[in-house]
Amino acid sequence: MKITKHDLNIISVLQENSRSSLQEISAQVGLSSTPCWNRIKKMEAEGIIQGYTVRVDPSLLGYRESVIVQVTLDNHSDETLFEFGRQLEKIPEVLEASLVSGDYDYYIRIAVKDTRDYERLLRESLYRIPGIRHTKSTFVLRTLKDRALPLPTASS
Question: Does the chain have fewer CB atoms within 10 Å around its N or its C terminus?
């Protein structure tokens, strides 16, 4: 699918507020409702728009701490990587996990209530995953930027 400036504008509006009505989106991007709706549906079908979510303030739900955990695995076989990812999926506090290059194999972002909650998570969940050789934890002091994807310029 060739991405047009209208598509990028639609994505921009939805990233700002995914609850915008079709009429609001259409007005902001300069399209009538039907072509706007068709573009949204096509981007959903193509996997460009993968879903709609709600952003919440974790601290207001009791998750006052965010931890970045760097993980090194014992080996890098397909089985080990698959199983590690499968086990991470089972831990609800894991917000994000990325296989990375460099000194560590994974960067994992975890939400916890406090340091004791993090200790519990390590003992009961993370350290029970087979194949972990080494971890390094860093508590996030403040998040400076957490925003939507910057959009490229597209041809019309």
Answer: C
